[in-house]
Specification:
It is a single chain. By secondary structure, the chain is of the alpha/beta class. It has one domain (7-232): Alpha/Beta hydrolase fold, catalytic domain (Rossmann fold, 3-Layer(aba) Sandwich). 32% of the residues lie in helices and 20% in strands.
Length: 234
């Protein structure tokens, strides 16, 4: 399957790579990938969302520290959410549906908390509530191979996963747009009770479980698309 060629945009003081599909004047959707991936991870989903009869303009950026975006060393989820907000402004998008997977889901719900006016509908794929890990995740060892992401990003993500900012929990009530939370079921390494807890914290959220593990959109793309397309069309 051919992947859309990325192009670069200056946003929030750095260079971000982004891929786009679909008619330029169609309703926009922003897809945010998981840790260690890049925007190409969404290719199969993006192509379907961009296709007739109800095409969307789909954008899939590489988050900072990933792929062809800048690797500046500052990798907090809050900063990543500011990147996405600035990217949307640079692209002339005043509001979009936002879909985020794992780390991308954390970035997506922080975007919705911090800049609620730009998120019309929110989809969170296998994302847990911001509760501290007990026991904490031990420091990961860097592989010897060359990586398509900055290893410092992994360290920061683990630190924030072990000890989330309490404001993430406290500001869940700011997420007032319709929200769909998709859990990966018992085969996912993400505790599903915490995925359900996230759906309970967000005022206008519903929970759907697709027994696919953590990579729902990759393992069960048809079920994922059915849930997401139906939700975005409401």
């Amino acid at each position: 399957m051919e992947t859309a060629a990325p192009y670069t945009v200056e946003a929030n003081g750095i260079t971000l790579a982004v891929r786009a599909w679909g008619p330029a004047d169609a309703p926009p959707v922003v897809l945010l990938h998981c840790r260690g991936a890049d925007g190409a991870d969404w290719t199969r989903i993006a192509e379907r969302l961009a296709a007739p009869p109800r095409p969307r303009r789909v954008y899939a950026p590489d988050l900072r520290g990933h792929g062809r975006s800048a690797w500046p060393g500052d990798y907090t989820a809050e900063t990543m959410s500011d990147d996405v907000h600035a990217l949307m402004a640079a692209l002339g998008i005043d509001g979009a549906d936002v879909v985020g997977h794992s780390l991308g889901g954390l970035v997506a719900y922080l975007l919705a908390q911090r800049h609620p006016g730009v998120v019309r509908r929110l989809v969170l794929e296998d994302v847990c509530a911001p509760v501290p890990l007990d026991p904490p995740r031990p420091p990961a060892e860097r592989p010897e191979d060359e990586l398509p992401f900055d290893w410092e990003m992994v360290r920061t993500a683990d630190e924030q996963r072990n000890a989330p900012n309490p404001m993430w929990w406290d500001h869940m009530a700011r997420i007032t747009m319709p929200t769909l939370v998709i859990g990966g079921g018992p085969s996912s390494p993400i505790p599903q009770r915490q995925v359900a807890q996230l759906a309970e914290l967000i005022p206008n959220a519903r929970l759907v479980t697709v027994d696919a593990g953590h990579l729902v959109h990759e393992v069960r793309p048809e079920e994922f698309l059915s849930a997401v397309s139906g939700f975005l069309a409401e």
